[in-house]
Amino acid sequence: MSVIPDKPQAPFPDKPKVPAADQTLRILRFLAHQRGPVAAQTVATQLDLPRSSVYHLLAAMESHGFVVHLEGDRRWGLGTAAFELAGGYARQEPLARLGRPIVAQLADRAGESAHLAVMTGRDVLYIVEERAPRRPTLITDVGVRLPAHLTATGRAMLAALPREQVRALFPDAASLSAERTGRGPGRPRELRELLRQTRADGHATEDGEVTLGFRSIGVAVRDHAEWPAAAIAITWPEDAQVDPIRLADLAIDAAADLSRRIGRR
C-alpha cells in the first residue's frame, strides 16, 4: 500500500483574522523587495489577490503616504511613510548597534569624523556619530535631521533609489527649497545630474552645502534587496590635508562591511 506523504505545514496555519490587514502587509512587503515601482496588475498576479482588492488597498495606502502612484508609468512604489517606518526601525537601535563599531573604526582609520544616517522622508536622520580627535563638533549629531539632497549620506541613498522614487520625493523646485548655505541643487534637473554623477563615481560628495568650510563623502549601505538601508559618511575641514580618494575607499569598505552584516549577499 502506498503512503501519501503528509502535506507540509504552513508557517502560519490559521487564516488571518483580518484579511485586509494581511493583504496590506503582503503588498508592502512585496513592494519593498522590488528594484523599482511595479504595476498593480503585477502585484495582484504575484500575490494571487483580486485586482479590485489590490487597487482599493493601494489607494488607502496612498492616502496615508505608504505608497505613491506614478501616473505616467501606471506603477506603484513605496512612499515616504514607508521610509518613516525604516527610520523607526533604525531608532530602535539594531542598525545603530551594528554600525557603531564600523563607524568608530572608520573614524580611526580616516583620522576624520564619521557618521551613519538613515532616510526618513526627504530628510536624513543621523543615528551614529564618531568625532575624530582634535576635530570640531559637527552639526551631524545623533538625532539631527537634515535635508537629504544637501548631504553626502542623503545623496548616496537617493542615488541608490529607483529614479521614479526620487521623482516622487522631489517632484518640483518647491521640494528642494530647504537650504543652509545657499549651495546645493535647486531644481529636480540639477538633482538628477548630481545623482547621476554619484552613481558614476560610486560615492556621493558634499562641499559646504551643510556647513561652510566642511566637505563630506558618503556611501550607501544596501540591504538584501539592494535597497539603501542607510549611508556612511566621512566629514573633514576643507583646509585639512587629506586624500579624498583614500577616504572614499575607506567609506566604501565600511559601507560594504555593514551591508554584509545586515544581510546583503
From TrEMBL:
Sorted UniProt keywords: DNA-binding, Transcription, Transcription regulation
UniProt-listed Pfam families: HTH_IclR, IclR_C
InterPro entries: GAF-like_dom_sf, HTH_MetabolicPath_Reg, Tscrpt_reg_IclR_C, Tscrpt_reg_IclR_N, WH-like_DNA-bd_sf, WH_DNA-bd_sf
Superkingdom per UniProt: Bacteria
The IclR-ED domain, residue ranges: 81-264
GO biological process: negative regulation of DNA-templated transcription
UniProt-listed SMART domains: HTH_ICLR (SM00346)
Coiled coil: none
Name of the featured protein: Regulatory protein IclR
Biological source species: Microbacterium oleivorans
Organism lineage string: Bacteria, Bacillati, Actinomycetota, Actinomycetes, Micrococcales
